Amino acid sequence: VSGVGFQVHESPEALAEVVASRVLAAAQRAIAARGRFTLVLAGGGTPLRVYERLATSPADWSRWHLFHGDERCLPPEDRQRNSRAIAACWLDRIALPPGQHHPIPAELGAEEAAHRYAALIAPLLPFDLVLLGMGEDGHTASLFPGHALAQTGLTMAVHEAPKPPPDRVTLTPAALSATREALVLVTGAGKREALARWRAGDGLPVASVAAAAGAEVLVDAAAWG
Ligand code: 6PG
Asked: What's its job (predicted)?
């Protein structure tokens, strides 16, 4: 389907194991080639198993620079913030040098945060690896079906998002596809319908971002159906 490859794994745990090793391999290649690794993190629950595995993996964290594909407009310490959830299960447990985790400053309001984050990432493109999830409606990051996708910038403010909270900041397809590698992670029976629509050629946001990024899609048996 539209050039992306789908790989089916028997369980979320097996999938997380594969993704963690893919992230570590991408890091080794990037560090060897360019002295640093730029990684865009997916939010939501699916990738947390991967982040937990990375927390106990041997890696040269001093060369890692972490970014976010999207963020919810909530206070920084709110556990519903993607950056906070990822710190709790991974970043708070490793020696990442200060200033190498770049949360989207969504507490500043969606427009201001989008503006600042676009300026931050522009000189760094392309990323080495982008991780993405998929919602049950086929959204990815905070790019939701039916929302006018402002294609001009690298980031955009999102309001009235169908998945709470309503106000978010997201990288656009242009930014998410400016990467050497991309992996989309899809697990659970709840994603079965959206995945079937994707495979049937529906123009879902995740489908167009994945195609533009040349992403590999890793799914578990429950989602594959
Ligand atoms: C968010 C995420 C979002 C997520 C999907 C899947 O802020 O909610 O960035 O895009 O990746 O909604 O979420 P789950 O992995 O929790 O199913």
From this structure: Hydrolysis of 6-phosphogluconolactone to 6-phosphogluconate.
For residue 57, the CA-to-ligand 1 centroid distance in Å is 24
DSSP single-letter state for residue 163:
S
pLDDT tens digits, residue range 165-206?
Answer: 999 999 999 999 999 999 999 999 999 999 999 999 999 999
Token representation of residue 51: 């982040």
DSSP character for 37? E
Residue 117, CA atoms < 13 Å, CB-side half-sphere: 32
Q: What residue type is assigned to position 79 of the chain?
A: R
CB 54 within 8 Å of CB 90: yes
Whether ligand 1 lies within 6 angstroms of the CB of 199 is answered as no
Count of other CB atoms within 10 angstroms of residue 34: 11
